[in-house]
Amino acid sequence: MPTERTDLTVFAKDYPEARLVLEVKPVVSTPPEQDAAVRQVARYMWGANCHYGLVMTPTKTYVLRDDFSSTGSEAMRVTDVLATATLLSQLTGSLREPIAPEELESLAREWLERLTSSYQAALPDDPDVMRAFFPDLVGAVAEGRVVAEVAA
Amino acid sequence: MTASAHIFVETNFLFGVFRMPSKRHRNALALKARCDAGEVKLYVPYLCFQEARYLIAKSLPSNRCSDLLEFHRFAAGTKATAWDFAEVKKLLDAATGEVSQTKAVYQRELTEFATAGRWHPSRLEGGLRPSGITRPGR
Fold first, then answer.
1. Quick check: is B136 in a domain?
2. Dmax over Cα atoms in chain A, in whole Å?
3. Contact flag A47-B23 (C-beta cutoff 8 Å)
4. Residue B111 counted as domain residue
5. Range of B121's domain?
């Protein structure tokens, strides 16, 4: 049974500033604001002064953003929930659902690298996706460096 | 009596602690606070101080508020604006001032940290010196 987990972070192009963190998880509980993985990402965002986060599961992707309304990780809120198959459809070429969990980590990295180089090549022509990502999140990761951290 | 933890940090830590205050990394600030309190010992390669100076300078925005000022003038010229520009200007001036203030002090703050003796290069000198890592001032 695999015990590794993969965290992906997009850093600014020229300096070590975290712009987005992405965590791949098998599932997120309801309500997402109380899910342990979502809270962990929110705490990471607060500690690193990072304003955007994604928690990606095989079926849904949760978008977290800093609303600057309070001090602490509580300011990192789930603002959008998107279908992962839709979000990755430019990469996978289909809207099939769900995506196999064992595929998801590598797909997430490939998609994130595409997003940093060209959001038009990464994001589908979907109004919910565009509303969640454009313009601020797309701008934050543009030309960024995708770094994977693998922990045992 | 408990032994202090020994932690090896690099440029990311220095960048997170000494960059513009509103953009500092809270995890790095918490680690520095533990170092200041004697709870941990930090080991920092000297070259990281030079790299941090370079990156902090590079990360300082050169036109932090000009987009917003241009948008205000455009909006004010085309329709009645719903904001009090005098109040908004206070915010923008303060944000611009943070850039100027950081530019004025970050090199001194880094130097003070490097020479304050709150970090500990001795363990590095044996194992890592061959890689070019040494103590500031030597």
1. no
2. 41
3. no
4. yes
5. 5-131
Residues of B in contact with A48 (CB under 8 A): 16, 25-27
B25 and chain A in contact, CB less than 8 A:
yes
Residue (of A109, A106, A84) closest to A28 by Cα position:
A84
Q: What DSSP state is assigned to residue A99?
A: P
ipTM of predicted complex: 0.82
Look up the pTM and report it: 0.85
Cα nearest neighbour of A19 on chain B:
B23
**pLDDT tens digits for range A128-142:** 999 999 999 999 999
Q: How many helices (H) does chain B have, and how many strands (E)?
A: 6, 2
Q: Does a structural domain hold residue B11? A: yes
Specify the residue for token string 């100076």: B53
Alpha helices in chain A (DSSP H): 36-48, 84-87, 89-92, 101-117, 119-122, 127-133, 136-141
**Alpha carbon B34 to its chain's center:** 17
- What is the residue-wise DSSP string for B38-80? TSEEEE--HHHHHHHHHHHHHHS-SSTTHHHHHHHHHHHHHS-
Count other C-beta atoms under 10 Å from residue A22's C-beta: 24
- For residue B13, give the amino acid letter: F
Cα(A106)–Cα(A129) distance, integer angstroms: 21
Which residue of A15, A46, A47 is in closest CB contact with B59? A15
Record: contact A16-B55, CB cut-off 8 A:
yes
CA atoms of A79 and A8, how far apart (whole Å)? 20
Considering its fold, how many domains does chain B have in total? 1
What are the tokens at A79? 């603002």
Determine the residue of chain A that is closest to B53 in CA distance.
A15
* Strand, coil or helix: A97: coil
Q: What does the DSSP 8-state code read for residue B3?
A: P
Q: Answer yes or no: is B55 within a domain.
A: yes
| A53 strand-pairing partners | A21, A64
> pLDDT of B80-94, one tens digit each?
789 999 999 999 999
